[in-house]
Amino acid sequence: MASYKILQAEQQGIYVLKFIGEIRLYLCSTLDLIIDAMSSNPLFKTVVVDLSETTIIDSTTLGLLAKIAVLARKKSSFLPTIISTNPDVTRIIQTMGFGEIFIIMKEPAVELSELEEIPILKATEQQVREKVLDAHQTLMALNDSNREEFEDLVQALECENKSEQTALTH
To answer: Does pTM surpass 0.85?
Structure first.
């Protein structure tokens, strides 16, 4: 199993990248592809790079991070952010002058211990069916592609609901 990975999330032009393990040049194609995607996103606002679980980061990766900062400077007024809790990694990024092009945070934005587990609610089969139907109707309302994708399922669920209600009234 690989001792490294990059996790990514994006919402409304705000990207979050999390680098886990040894981040070396063998990941440069992947990271460059991510940067290309950011560059072509007209909604791009900024990037948060979480290095809190990074054990080693090489110069190729640092260069690509600098590329992200340049991109952010061109496309938005928000400085990108690096989260680094590893003193060795923090020293390296500070040495590279990243303090000028990134906001550097030395603590994670949110500790897992600050999060609360949401209790799982029990529901009847009918309640679940209604929630599934509602969720897919919501997806269908978002765009034509979703409408086409989920139309048959929604019709089937609506038929099941009608049959269930008819059976209950007779």
So the answer is: no
* 3-state SS, residue 117: coil
User: What is the spatial distance between Cα 69 and Cα 82, in angstroms, rounded to a whole number?
Assistant: 10
pLDDT tens by residue, 110-122? 554 554 554 546 7
Question: Which token pair is 125?
Answer: 């089969």
Cα–Cα distance measured from residue 167 to residue 73, given in angstroms and rounded to the nearest whole number: 63
Report the alpha-carbon distance of residue 80 to residue 102 in Å, rounded.
Answer: 5
49-63 per-residue burial string, b: 16 or more CB within 10 A, e: under 16: bbbbbbebbbebbbe
Q: How far is CA 104 from CA 3, 65, 66, 79, 115, in A?
A: 25, 13, 13, 10, 23
